[in-house]
Amino acid sequence: MSAARSIRGTLWASRNRNALSPTRLTPFLTIPQGNCRLNSTASILPLEVPSTTGDEHTVLTKKALRRPEYRTKDLNQVVGEEWTIKQKCLEADTKELAVDLHRIFRTGRRLRKVLKSNDYHVQTEPLDVDGGKTINVDKGDLMVGGTKIPNLWLRDNCQCSSCVHESTKQRLLDTFSIPEDISLRKFTFNEEKTLSVKWSDGHKSEYSSDFLSATVQNAARRAITRQGLTRLKLWGAEIADQPPHIFNNVDLSVRDMLRKIRKFGFVFVHDVDHPDPAATEALLKKIAFIRETHYGGFYDFTADLASADTAYTNIALEAHTDNTYFSDPAGLQAFHLLSHTDGEGGASLLVDGFKVAHELYQQDRDAYQVLSTVNVHAHASGNNGISIQPYRGFPVLEHDPSTNELLRVRWNNSDRASIELPIEDVGTWYDAARKFDALLKKKENEYWEQLQPGRVLIFDNWRVLHGRSSFTGKRRICGGYINRDDWISRYKMESVGREKVLRALASG
């Protein structure tokens, strides 16, 4: 029996709560014959015995046991025709029963989380932002698309220079000094479709129609600007025919570079000076500042185990994401092969984690749900004096809770610690993880590329898994990490524009 079917069977009890009420305990009881004491507590629990003559059930209570008119052929077959309350009794150890029921409820609650019906998915095309909402004032209330906008919220989100600092864009208004019953005193709409308001506290505010329309957008639409969502291109081994790339020159467009990363999950940057790593470091700093970790900031290393991590060896590495042991894994990672002498091998492996997740979703929804809900812990403990662990476990597939869209893949079997399930249930996770691992290793999903001096690889560590083949000789690699929030911020500024991003802050 598959793990998913086993779970569904266990969940029958928890999903059908009536089956566990005191009057319907039949699925969990065995009623043998024999001498025993009738527990006084058990006497209040009716026990059902399936009838041999039909679909009805015989209900056994003290009343049935004492009064001859309740004796039936079915009852006599179970307890014997000579049975009386003083001579024989029905075995019903309620202490053991209570323990069993507690275990069933506990397991049901726990495993119900694994197979909850959230519609997790990989969103490749964000919804278009809809505009043109009807805006009007009805009996002193602002209505946008038929939705009433609370006066307190509207006053709190006034964007004038008295309420929001012009340079820092931080709030200046003391929110809780606003009267709870604040109301609109006067309002007008001008030709620029701007609402001008005079409040009961004397303050004046202006709100554009775009700003007001955004207040009633659903979570998926609000996420487009906040997360910098765009149309994604899922890929497999065929990406080798035309990988995304850009040239490093005085006209290098950070916008084009980040757009390719956002769409494909990676980009190659050509014509970067080497073997001096300074040009690579400068390239990364054009995006954002380089993240410091226990490995340092910008790294420049060879396979000498200078840090206790398999990345500092020459062995093969399976597809994985970095920093699963951090609560906030790095957003971008970069590799630049500065030199490789006296040896061969070391081809780089890239796998689109979102594509693999999408395939798993199509093939086995139960496995996808397991990897989306069961938390897994990780650690980095190789260096003396260090054992880094996130503040909690995280699932392999993390989703935006407001939209259910896949947000991040965390997969590194080398750094994995415990699985957040009772030991008797961990097989469920292993079954799902095995299917995900098989898809990661499918040839059609693996893109192999030999890194070359002068060509920098930058990839999205939340989406693209990386690995390498083993190698001989001496390799020198440089690179670094960039925080997710920092690179997405830069992407939004370049692709969406500062004005639009700031306008969406109140509603996003």
Automatic annotation (TrEMBL):
Keywords: Carnitine biosynthesis, Dioxygenase, Iron, Metal-binding, Oxidoreductase. Converts trimethyllysine (TML) into hydroxytrimethyllysine (HTML). The keyword Transmembrane does not apply. One of its GO terms (biological process) is carnitine biosynthetic process. One of its GO terms (cellular component) is mitochondrion. The keyword Metal-binding applies. GO terms for molecular function: iron ion binding; trimethyllysine dioxygenase activity. This is Trimethyllysine dioxygenase. It comes from Ophiobolus disseminans. Pathway: Amine and polyamine biosynthesis; carnitine biosynthesis. Its cofactor is Fe(2+); L-ascorbate. Belongs to the gamma-BBH/TMLD family. Residues 235-480 form the TauD/TfdA-like domain. Residues 148-212 form the Gamma-butyrobetaine hydroxylase-like N-terminal domain.
